[in-house]
Amino acid sequence: MITPVGATPGIEVHPSAVVHPSARLGPGTRVGPHAVIGEGVVLGDDCEVGPGAHLVKWVEAGARNRFHSGAIIGDAPQDLRHDGSPSCVRIGSGNVFREHVTVHRGANTGGATVLGDGNFLMAGSHLGHDCVLGSNVIVANGALLAGHVQVGDRAFISGNCLVHQFCRVGRLALMQGGSAISKDLPPFCIGRGDNGVCGLNVVGLRRAGIDAAPRLALRRAYHVLFRSGLRLADALAMLESVFAQETLVMEWVTFVRSGKRGLCRDRGRAGETERSGESTDGAV
Questions:
Q1: Coil, strand, or helix at residue 205?
Q2: Which pTM value belongs to this model?
Q3: Which of 99, 139, 144, 137 is nearest to 118 (CA)?
Q4: Measured distance CA(146)–CA(156) in Å, rounded
Q5: Which of 28, 222, 227, 251 sits at a 20 to 30 Å CA gap from 99?
Q6: Can you give the CATH number for the domain in which 242 is found?
Q7: What is the pLDDT of residues 10-37, one digit of tens each?
Q8: CA atoms within 13 A on the CB side of 86
Q9: What is the Cα–Cα distance from 249 to 121, expressed in whole angstroms?
């Protein structure tokens, strides 16, 4: 239940904070010193807005979200074509926005930047306009996601990574620190360097409860997709023929076929043994 500020016991707003009359805060929400909550902002129950955080306007967030000091959520998109028309940021529940995170609104009328549940955005990271994050995504310090980027559930984007506009990062993918992509990074893969992949995110797959048999199927499919020398269309056809019963491999096929920017390229075997845990997994 969400009610206007001041109408519900348990809402704590510091005297130095500024809350727009149209904002609505859920029970248990706490607003710290010098925070600013702007026009049309809606926060669910038990949210926390830290000192100096600024929820600019048209931010809709569920319960138990944490906005740390200096976070700026819902400012205008950095798009020269934006004419000031209404757009928003829609946030699920249980997300954490650490110090000085920036998340911009959608660029067009009715557009939205969207985050699911349980995401963790570390200090200084940025989500551009119209980004779509799934749930339980980690975006580490200084990582920059340009407009219209899509990130699947449980992906991990390490520190100072760069993701070009309109790119996709698949479910349970991982980008190594400082990586930069202008092409799509498929699910379950590790991104390395510029538009490179260097094997499977085996540690992430294990933590997600993926058993050894589907991991082995992914490992074999990886060789077909990235190292067989086949044309992409032929590699996809082979995956559909040989691995038709493997759900995770078919997720790869669907991801690749729906892309428009092309795929990151394999960097060869040299990087495989550098990844903690993978070399000790005898089943993969």
A1: helix
A2: 0.90
A3: 137
A4: 16
A5: 28
A6: 1.20.1180.10
A7: 899 999 999 999 999 999 999 999 999 9
A8: 6
A9: 29
- Rounded to 5°, angle at Cα 66 from 171 and 24: 110
| Token pair in block for residue 203 | 């540690």
The span from the CA of 227 to the CA of 235, in Å, is 10
Q: Tell me, what amino acid is at 236?
A: L
Instruction: Tell me whether residue 39 is in a domain.
Output: yes
Token duo for residue 23: 């904002």
Residue 248 lies in domain: 206-270
Q: Model confidence over 44-73: pLDDT tens digits?
A: 999 999 999 999 999 999 999 999 999 999
Q: How far is CA 261 from CA 13, 67, 90, 197, 256, in A?
A: 46, 33, 26, 15, 10
Are residue 31 and residue 97 in the same domain, yes or no? yes
Token match 């930047």: residue?
113
Indicate if 143 and 223 belong to the same structural domain: no
Which amino acid makes up residue 171? R
